[in-house]
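Quick one: structure tokens for this chain, please?
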Amino acid sequence: MPRTDFTEQLRRRLVELGCPIVQVRRLVQEVADHHEDLKQAALSEGLSETDAESRANVQLGDPLVLAEHLMAALRRSSWWGRHFLIGFCLLPLLAVPVLWTLFLMLGLSLEFALGFGWDWKKLHVATDNPVAFHHLVLALHGADYVAIALVTLLFCWLARRSGVSLKWMVIACAICSLYASFVYARIWPHNFEVGITWTPQWIEAAIPLLIAGAIYAFRRRTTQCFQEKVAV
């Protein structure tokens, strides 16, 4: 028979609502401790084990409703949860190009430093070598992909941590994808350019969407596995 006690119902609903696993464990433990305190108080009044359990459940209320309240409190506890419209719609519009440029520059600096040390004269000499320049172009593409992924993962992490609805994470990912479609970085011998193109860059645009799809699939699989585990 599936377990339908208060704690398991609460845990299942928190997982369904997208609560981070670490927070699920903490919240469930806090509620379980409070439930035990209420039960012990009822037992001290002379109630039977069954009656004490029932009273504790009544005092805590419906576990499904309680889970909703706990998630609302989790969202209110962080700036991103309280201002999700600004945090996952407006801020990505303003911050994505800045963060992308920052991550791209850091990635390129690291790659070039690993290949040429910090001797920029060697780097300029390498640009005149077709083979070495080809490697530089590949390094730029790799840094570009990594920068897009890091920006996307940052907003996904913030959405997950603040406990907001999955749709806000998807919106942030869509904004990242839009920017990735038209913002480009190119390298020529002795020249580097960042700009906007009206020709969509489909590979770059696909990266944020793939990340969003992977996170959605992971969360759905996690929820299903948990429900199957509870049902055993």
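The CA atoms of residues 124 and 190 lie 6 Å apart.
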